[in-house]
Amino acid sequence: MRPLLAALTLALVPARGLTGDTDPAVRLLERAIEIEQRGPALAEIWPGYWPPGQPFVLYLPEVGATFGGEASPGGATFREGPLEDVRFWYVLDYPGGPANTVALRLETADSNLDTLFHEQFHDFQSDAFRWLGEAGGEFVDISALDDLETFTARVEIERHLLREAISATTDEARQSLVRLYLAAREARLGDAPGDVRLAEDHMEWSEGTAEYAATMAMTVMEAAGATSASRIAARLSEPLFSPGQSYTRSVFRGRAYGVGAAQAWLLDAVDAPDWRRRVEAGQPLAQLLAEHFARGDLPPAAAPPVDDDLRAEVRRQLAALPPAPTRVAEVLADGERWLELVVDVPASRAADLGVSFRSDFTALADGLALNNVDQFLLQIDDLRVEARDRRIVLASSNSAEDRHEAVYFLELTAAEARTFEAQSPLPSFPTLELPAEQRAIIEADGDRVTVRLTL
Ligand SMILES: [Zn+2]
């Protein structure tokens, strides 16, 4: 048994540069205290996001967890042993702590904390942010873009201009670069269907602001490290396309983190009046940026042209993209055996049906395909399905009268599929746990098994 560590223990170890030999439990406690000490600066990032006493948990499996802020009111404390309810890299509203406790699972005692600060911002958003009108979805129909090559090349030009704007050393240079950026963006989106702009605005608003907050928080935590500007510039220098990921995933989600963070950073840099409150009220970052930098009293900027080298590079990247399905039926047709899971809950409980996953995914017009699931958890009350190492498709849900139905498809191996028999208790497998005690109607006909879980 490792003794419970007190702050006194911490005073005996050097404060900085601890890696290697340091007891991971000591390091974990030390990091929690660092977060607490920087609380006042973290609270300045965005009012309400990291309030004084923000409760948090840093968890290192095999070692234990430190509890900080209001999760341990007398000062950060370490407890050894596993936290059974932290299955994923982070948990928002950690059930063992006060409201809004954010829990982060670390790989090592020195792992980066940006996920903690990013995800806590999402928790804050869920209370403080209201998007106006229709929400932009994860899926964007790129077949509606008539020149994908030019569209993508302009995306790259915009990222470059934003990077330059953030790194600019004079206000004048920054202003003209932002205006060029806005002109380039308008030239690109002016030709595109309206839902493309909506998807971009929405993703920048949600992920970009979370990325902005996490970047500012990491700058606070690593005061001797890189500036927030160079952190965001580095994000904008990352390749647009990640290996194995679809166009939509890379361009509409992946791009939005750096671009949205840069837009927020620029609004902050010029002290745009009330910009955080207006973002909370649902205004897109790019719109606020245009209000500030592309006003009618300023000379108009012209979008930069796409040069041949960039076009050739983009063409090469587009050719290397993996094929991406756009509908649930296409993904299902690509697999041999599927378990169709229908989860049927009272309509009043639909919002409590929680689905968490860790996986690469492809957004579909009618669902979401999880391509190689590391972890999947579906839970409402004590009804729970856990799965990994397989493809899973989240199909659409239907609400009728007083019931709500959500449909999921889990890919099965031949051996797993053979185990299901109509009207039998649900089997479980090493990588797929089904609620055996559930009253489930099963239709099993070899390659398609249907199970209905009812709450
Ligand atoms: Zn996020």
In round numbers, the mean pLDDT is 90
- Helix/strand-derived category reads alpha+beta
Bound molecules: zinc ion
Low-confidence stretches: 1-19
Order of helices and strands: HHHEEEEEHHHHHHHHHHEEEEEEEEHEEE
Strand content: 15-25%
Number of helices: 14
- Radius of gyration of CA atoms, rounded to a whole number: 24 Å
Amino- and carboxy-terminal Cα gap: 42 Å
Largest sheet: 7 strands, mixed
Number of strands: 16
Shape: globular
Neighbour order of strands in the largest sheet: 8-9-12-13-6-16-15
Helix content: 25-40%
Number of domains: 3
How would you describe this structure to a colleague?
By secondary structure, this protein is an alpha+beta fold. The protein has three domains: about 5-110, no CATH class; about 140-320, no CATH class; about 330-455, no CATH class. The protein is about 40% helix and about 20% strand. It contains 14 helices and 16 strands. β15 (about 440-445) and β16 form a beta hairpin. α4 crosses α7 and α9 packs across α11 (about 285-295). The two termini are about 40 Å apart. The structure holds zinc ion. Zinc ion binds near residues 118, 122, 207 and 210.
